[in-house]
Amino acid sequence: MESLKPVFSVHELNEYVDLLLGHDPNLNRLTVEGELSGCKRHPNGHLYFTLKDEQASVSCVMWRQYTAGLRFLPKDGMRVRLIGSASLYTRDGRFQLYATALQKQGEGDLYAAFCRYREELREKGWFDETLKKPIPKLPVCVGVVTSSSGAALQDIRTVIGRRFPTMPIRLYPAAVQGENAADEIADAIRKADAEQVAEVLIVGRGGGSMEDLWAFNEETVAEAIHDCSIPVISAVGHETDFSISDFVADLRAPTPSAAAELAVPEWDGLTARLEELGVRFRNALSNGVASKRQRLNLIWSDGISSRMELRIGKARQSIEEDGQVLERVAANRLNQTRMELKTLADQMNAYHPQKTLARGFALVYDANHRLIKQSESVALGDSLSIHLASGTLNTVVTGKEQP
């Protein structure tokens, strides 16, 4: 009679496998060489990373008591020798290595390729500061090259919406990771350059490992940024991440959110600056006229003889002539400044939300007073408020049409 084999629960199975691994002497004290990827330092001091070669990868953990003894900062692309043990993380059934020591062996193949290409472009002069185009202080439109479903796009929209609510954003969607990502990013940059709708272009994505960000190190992307006539802000990964596109672009931002802050000014700040300039100009003109009058009065008060009166007359004539010249210069400067202020005011007024509403547009908010931009964000039966140029309408969604 065949003996019955035990039936394991998932937890029991993982515990059993972990027990087998723990009793294997070859796995209790092992040494593995590979390349670091996806390094993440937890606030509590633990280090999580992946060790990989050309054919495979394995998850690794190094606890805080061991990371404190490291003599170098582990970074993606480094080739290291890991000393530790292999075990099973029983909760998830995930095989992983527990490192007790890391020895730096050199830079990995991927990082070495990055350094070689970076030096090649540096020698070609692509990083030269004289090639950097200035970022416009008040663009008419901001272009964005990134994934249409990524968090980076939402971060950029949120920051621009807060700083300059009426600023138009033109999305040029592209995959930012994967086999065809580099070609899609380059094509999107060239399309934006051909359209000339945006006056500044943000190119980037959120954080990730060196492999995740590699599309922004490809030659086709670097060439598209270098050839783009529109100023480009590169915003790839987190603050500590660097890519080839960061060096070629006209400006590097540490994050997509920071790129949005660099691309557009604050509406309130522009208004305050305009008022400040007007006050300073009026004060300067008033002080100049008062100073000339005071000087003329002093000269007249000192005249006690005919010779002095003659000198005073000549001085008065000179001052009057100077005053006429000053008045003409001041008048011309005042007219010029008024024209500049009017041009800036007209430009700002064109962006004012009330102007947009006056042309027949409307702002739609949900019950929580959140601005509705897409029909996917509301459901049938939702209560909405429609803000017009004059007055507000309250309504309920009875039907939807997808774009």
Write the layout of secondary structure elements.
Blueprint: H1 10-22, H2 25-28, E1 30-41, E2 47-52, E3 57-62, H3 64-67, E4 78-89, E5 94-107, H4 109-124, E6 142-146, H5 151-163, E7 169-173, H6 181-195, E8 200-205, H7 219-227, E9 232-236, H8 244-248, E10 251-252, H9 256-263, H10 267-301, H11 306-351, H12 353-358, E11 363-365, E12 383-387, E13 392-396
Parallel strand pairs: 3-5, 6-7, 6-8, 8-9, 9-10
Antiparallel strand pairs: 1-2, 1-4, 2-3, 4-5, 11-12, 12-13
Offer a few descriptive terms.
single chain; 403 residues; alpha/beta; 5-stranded parallel β-sheet; elongated
Task: Give a description of the structure.
The chain is an alpha/beta fold and 403 residues long. Helix content is 43%, strand content 21%. The protein has twelve helices and 13 strands. The protein has helices spanning 10-22, 25-28, 64-67, 109-124, 151-163, 181-195, 219-227, 244-248, 256-263, 267-301, 306-351, 353-358, and strands at 30-41, 47-52, 57-62, 78-89, 94-107, 142-146, 169-173, 200-205, 232-236, 251-252, 363-365, 383-387, 392-396. The protein has a five-stranded mixed beta barrel with strand order 1-2-3-5-4. A hairpin with a 4-residue loop joins strand 4 (78-89) and strand 5. 22% of the residues are buried.
Q: How many E-type strands? A: 13
**What is the quaternary state of this protein?**
single chain
* Helix content class: 40-55%
What fraction of residues sit in β-strands? 15-25%
The gist of it:
The protein is built from 12 helices and 13 strands.
